[in-house]
Structures are given as C-alpha cells and as structure tokens.
Amino acid sequence: MTHAMTADELRAKAAERQQTCSQIKKMIVSRLDLEIEPDWITDDQPLFGRGLELDSLDVLELYVAIEAEFGVALYDSEMAVFGSVSRLADEVNPALRATA
Question: pLDDT tier at 1 (50, 70, 90 boundaries)?
C-alpha cells in the first residue's frame, strides 16, 4: 500500500535533499581541493567525464570522505552511485530515495 505524500512532506523531503546535496558538494570541493565554488556543481552534473572530470584517485578520496562525513561505507557499492551529486545523496541518505 503506497502512501501519497502531502505537500508539506514533499517540501520537507525537497529541503532535506537540497541540504544533503549541498553538504556533498562542499565535501567534494574541500576534499579534492577543487578551484570552484560548491554551488557551481549541479545536482545532476556527471562527476566523471565531461562533468567534474574526477578520476579514480578522486573516487578513493570520496569513499573516505563520505564515510567520515556521513558514516556510510560505499565500498561495496556500484560506481554508478558516483554518477552525480544527486545519486550520492540517495546513497548517503536513504530517506531521500523515491518510494514506490
């Protein structure tokens, strides 16, 4: 049985997602010493390739940073979780995942 979210619940979830994404962006810029403002990174921007152009060493640093900051170990996760800030947010904060 699915439960339709109220407008207030949707707003609260959106605010929580925005806060988690913002925290991830600040962590990425800080940990990887990027020469950009965290707000420059969009939630759905690819972190690899033509996005932020991160490499495998950056991923290792992010594994450590995410575990330290969010208490979540991603070692067994697929690389897809590093596809974007939004995907990382879903992984580090399961409450953000869409419920079917």
Answer: low
85-94 per-position pLDDT tens digit: 999 999 999 8
Sign of the Cα torsion 42, 25, 12, 92 reads positive
Under DSSP, the state recorded for 81 is G
Both tokens of 29, joined, read 């810029």
By the 8 A CB rule, do 38 and 29 touch? yes
Look up the pTM and report it: 0.85
SS3 for 69?
Answer: helix
Tell me the C-alpha to C-alpha distance, in Å, between residue 97 and each of 1, 17, 49, 52, 86: 17, 9, 25, 24, 10
The identity of residue 70, as a single letter, is: F
Q: What's the rounded Cα separation, in Å, for the pair 98 and 94? A: 9
